[in-house]
Amino acid sequence: MSVDDIKSEIDELYGVDISPSMISKITDKVMETAIAWQNRSLDPVYPIVYMDALYFKVKEEHKIVNKAAYVCMALDMKGYKDILGIWVGEQEGAKFWLTVCNDLKNRGVKDIIIACMDGLKGLPDAIKVVFPEVNIQNCIVHQIRNSLKYVASKDSKAFMKDLKSVYQASTEILALASLDNLEANWGAKYSIVIQSWRNNWENLSTYLDFPPEIRRIIYTTNALEGFNRQLRKFTKIRTTFPTDDSLKKALFLATEQIMKKWTSPSQNWSSTLAQLTIMFENRIEQ
Fold first, then answer.
1. This prediction's pTM
2. Dist CA 37 CA 35 (whole Å)
3. Long-range contacts of 258-263 (CB under 8 A, 24+ apart)
4. Largest Cα–Cα distance of the chain, in whole Å?
5. Which of 98, 147, 235, 241 has the highest local Cβ count within 10 Å?
6. Using one digit for the tens of pLDDT, what is the confidence trace for 156-191?
């Protein structure tokens, strides 16, 4: 709720007129809890993390600027979802992502096995600096969406049929052969799309090294996008936040509510963890 909403609600319920500044002072009490949550100790190893950034309008020095809220969601060793932190900062870039990754390390994270992201600017380089052995997976769904932006509607059905054989391939060898076929059929018309897949192939093809149960979890960032959509529902009443702290309060309180519903581990997690333990034995067992 906005300060004005709280003010009118208290007035209607109790007939008490409280100033906006008093309401802000009262709600500021939550910042102690939010800071403690943001700085809590974390597990040494996370098998899978998802990272993304959302944007909000915040007042700063009499101007309205876009601020990024950097979100890190993880699946822990028991398969439960957890939000490791939300960091509010300037526009997305390698420098701030490095701050995020270093914060995770300072709070106890020694290793991340797989990091899933949406081609975020600066993040692959930043996370590799802090966690050198991490496997990066760019979201296939986002890559497909971005590809179709350049494809004429009359070609989209035929193009998608050829593209499916790339990302649904059972092995990387077959996927690359299908990518060659895609280029042979469409390269002259949509070279920018083919080039995007080739340029990003290293981070797009990671999931092909894994069995189906793990592929299902890592090929898309939909799990984190679902959380982001719920955050938006809680914060949509505010088109602009007066300060960074007011945004942090709103995001923390929304996160607290959303996470109450996360009471079950990821589907077939025992099988997933068994596979990961075999593939990354030394790293998982630490």
1. 0.90
2. 5
3. 258/227, 258/230, 258/231, 258/234, 259/81, 259/82, 259/83, 262/80, 262/81, 262/82
4. 73
5. 241
6. 999 999 999 999 999 999 999 999 999 999 999 999
